[in-house]
Design a protein that fits this description.
Elements: H1 7-11, E1 24-30, E2 33-40, E3 45-49, H2 62-66, E4 71-75, H3 92-106, E5 111-116, H4 118-129, E6 134-140, H5 151-156, H6 169-175, H7 184-195, H8 202-206, E7 212-219, H9 224-233, E8 250-258, H10 259-262, H11 266-278
Helix pairs in contact: 3-4
C-alpha cells in the first residue's frame, strides 16, 4: 500500500488506459462533498476504490475488463480526481463511510467491492464498519496492521513531507482533473497524516462476515508474511482434498511484482478476481 512517491509511475500511465465502452460519469452529494463516479458495464454491482494520489483513469484497464462481466461503480475519493476536497481529515473510517454513503445515494443496497492500496484498506474498513453493504471483498495490496508494512517503508514514513511532492509530475497529473488546482499540498498533508494513522484491525478482520480475496505482489509494500497472516485470520491456509469445502477467502501472490505494478497485471488480476466472484474453484484430479 505504498501510497507516496512510487505512485507517480502509475499516475503517468493514465493516458494508456482506455475503456471498451464509454462509462457514464456523474456527481452525487456524499457527506458534504460532491463525489464523482463512473458507471460502466452490466451485471452484478462491483464498487471500485482507487489508491491514494490516484483516480479512476489511473486504475488502468482493470476497470473496463471487469465491466465486461459486472456493473462497475468506480468512485473518486475526497480530494482525488474530480471529487472536491473538504475541511476534514482523510482517514480510513472516513473513506469507508464515504463509500457506504455513496452506495446509499445511488441505491446500491449491497455489492462486491474491489479496492487497491488505500482503496483496499478503505474497502476493509467498509466491510468492518458496514458489513451489510459488502458481499465479497477484493483487496489488492492490503494490510490490517501497520506492522505488516515492509521495514523500508516504515522507515520512510517519518521522513515524508509535502515539499517532496510539490511541483513534480504527481502534482501536474493531479491538477488535470482537480476542481481546485491549488489544493494539492493540502491533499498531500492529509495523505501523509493517513500514513501515520494507527492500524490494528486484527480482531475486526477475524470477525469479518464477508470473504476476502487478498492480492499482493511478491515485492509489495506489505510483507508476504502479513498477507499469509491475514489469510489465516480469515480461515485460509488449511489443507484441501480432505472432503471439506475450501474457505471462502482466497490468497493470490503475483510474481516479480512491486506495489505499483500490481494494478497493471490486468490478465492475472481478472483471472483471480472473476472466478472468486463467481464462487468457482479449480477441480482437483480426484474430482474434489
Amino acid at each position: 500500500m505504498l501510497r507516496t512517491t512510487v505512485l507517480a509511475g502509475v499516475l503517468l500511465m493514465t493516458a494508456a488506459a482506455h475503456a471498451q465502452t464509454e462509462p457514464t460519469g456523474a456527481y452525487v452529494d456524499v457527506n458534504g462533498m460532491q463525489m464523482y463516479y463512473e458507471v460502466s458495464g452490466e451485471g452484478d454491482p462491483l464498487v471500485v476504490l482507487h489508491g491514494a494520489y490516484m483516480n479512476i483513469p489511473s486504475m488502468g484497464e482493470i476497470i473496463p475488463r471487469l465491466a465486461e462481466t459486472h456493473k462497475i461503480y468506480a468512485i473518486e475519493f475526497q480530494g482525488h480526481g474530480r471529487t472536491e476536497d473538504i475541511d476534514r481529515p482523510i482517514t480510513y473510517p472516513n473513506l469507508a463511510d464515504d463509500a457506504a454513503a455513496f452506495m446509499d445515494a445511488v441505491g446500491i443496497e449491497k455489492a462486491d467491492v474491489f479496492g487497491y492500496s488505500m482503496g483496499a484498506a478503505a474497502g476493509l474498513q467498509l466491510a468492518i464498519r458496514h458489513p451489510e453493504k459488502v458481499d465479497q471483498l477484493i483487496g489488492a495490496s492490503i494490510a490490517y496492521d501497520v506492522t505488516g508494512w515492509q521495514p523500508a517503508f516504515r522507515e520512510f514514513i517519518p521522513t515524508m513531507s509535502a515539499e517532496m511532492f510539490a511541483g513534480g509530475p504527481m502534482e501536474a497529473e493531479w491538477q488535470k482533473l482537480a476542481p481546485n488546482k491549488d489544493g494539492f499540498i493540502d491533499l498531500v498533508e492529509k495523505l501523509i497524516a493517513l500514513e501515520k494513522e494507527p492500524m490494528a484491525w486484527e480482531n475486526d478482520v477475524r470477525a469479518l462476515q464477508a470473504p476476502v480475496l487478498i492480492i499482493a505482489g511478491d515485492a509489495d509494500v506489505s510483507t508476504l508474511e502479513h498477507s499469509v497472516s491475514m489469510f489465516r485470520l480469515l480461515g485460509g491456509g488449511v489443507m484441501g482434498d480432505m472432503g471439506q469445502p475450501l474457505p471462502a477467502s482466497r490468497l493470490a501472490i503475483l510474481p516479480a511484482t512491486s506495489h505499483t505494478a500490481v494494478i497493471n497485471q490486468v490478465d492475472l488480476l481478472y483471472g483471480f478476481i472473476e472466478p472468486y466472484l463467481q464462487g468457482k474453484t479449480p477441480a482437483g484430479f480426484m474430482g474434489q
